Amino acid sequence: MKLLLLTVILIIVGCTLPNFGINLMREENYTVKVTWLGHAGFMFESKDTRIYVNPYSSPVGALKGDGIIVTYSASDICDLPSIRLLAKDDSVILVPPECNARLAMSDSTSLVINSYYNINSAVIQTIDAYYPNGTINKGEGAGLIITMDGVKIYYAGITGIIPEMNKVKNVDLVILPIAGSGLTMSMTEAIGLMQALNATYNVPMYYGGNTGTSLDIGRDFKRIAGQNGVNITLLNNQDLLILK
C-alpha cells in the first residue's frame, strides 16, 4: 500500500513540475546537450561529438573535446591552460591568429571569419562579431553558427548588435552576451535580437565571473525578457537538453 501511494505521489509531482525554461527529459534521449562553463564558455555535445567554445578555467579531469573553438584573442576568452587541458591528439582546434601565436600548438588552426569547418558530423560556420564603437574591431572576433544532428545554434560571440546578424536565420538556440557597458550588447538589445530571431531557446552569457557582474544579472534578465514575451533559459546549475 505504501509503495502504491509513493508511486501515485511521484506521478502527480512529475506531471506538475513547473517549466523553468529547461527542457526536462531523460538524459539519454537528448539530441544535443548544452553546458555553460561560466563566462563565455560552453560545451556542446551530441551523440558522437563534443565541442568546447571559449572554455574558461576548466578543471583538471574535464572531458576532452573533439573540437575546441576560441572566438576572440583576449586572455579571458583565449584561455591557454584550458585549451591545452581539453585538447586530445586528434582535436580540431580553431582559434584567432593572435591567440594561435600565443598557444603555440602545432595542431591548432587560425580561425577565418566567413568560413566553414567540420568537426566529426558537426558543421561550424564563422561569422562576424565586433563592437561597433571599435572596442572590438571588425575582423578581431567571430560568431558561430553550429549545426549538430539537426540542431542549429547561434553563438554570437563577444559582440554588439551588428548588421551581419541579419544573415542569421532559422536557429533553434540563441546564445547572446549581456555584459553591456561598452563590452557587448545591452540587455535591452539582447532581448530585441532574441525577439527578431525567434528561436526555441534563448540563453544569456558573459555575466558573472570575470565580467564583473553577478549571477543575479541573469535572473534580472530573465524577468525583464519574460515581460517582453521572450522565454529565457538560465544555465547556472543545469544543462539544456535539446530534442530534435
Description of the molecule:
21% of the residues lie in helices and 26% in strands. By secondary structure, the chain is α/β, with parallel strands linked by helices. It has a single domain (28-233), classed as Metallo-beta-lactamase, Chain A (4-Layer Sandwich), CATH 3.60.15.10. Strands 6-5-4-3-2-1-13 form a 7-stranded mixed β-sheet. A 6-stranded mixed β-sheet has the order 7-8-9-10-11-12, covered by helices on one side. It starts with a helix and ends with a strand. Mean pLDDT is 88; it is low at 2-25.
Oligomer: single chain
β-strand amount: 25-35%
CATH topology: Metallo-beta-lactamase, Chain A
If helices are DSSP runs of H or I spanning 4 or more residues, what is the number of helices?
A: 5
Strand order of the largest sheet: 6-5-4-3-2-1-13
Derived structural class: alpha/beta
Rg: 19 Å
Largest sheet, in brief, is: 7 strands, mixed
Order of helices and strands: HEEEEHEHEEEEEEHEHE
DSSP, total strands: 13
Overall pLDDT score: 88
CATH class: Alpha Beta
Overall form: globular
CATH homologous superfamily label: Ribonuclease Z/Hydroxyacylglutathione hydrolase-like
Number of structurally distinct domains: 1
Compile the SSE list and pairings.
Layout: H1 2-15, E1 32-38, E2 41-45, E3 50-53, E4 67-69, H2 80-86, E5 92-95, H3 97-103, E6 108-110, E7 116-119, E8 122-129, E9 141-148, E10 151-155, E11 173-177, H4 187-197, E12 201-205, H5 216-227, E13 240-242
Parallel strand pairs: 3-4, 4-5, 5-6, 10-11, 11-12
Antiparallel strand pairs: 1-2, 1-13, 2-3, 7-8, 8-9, 9-10
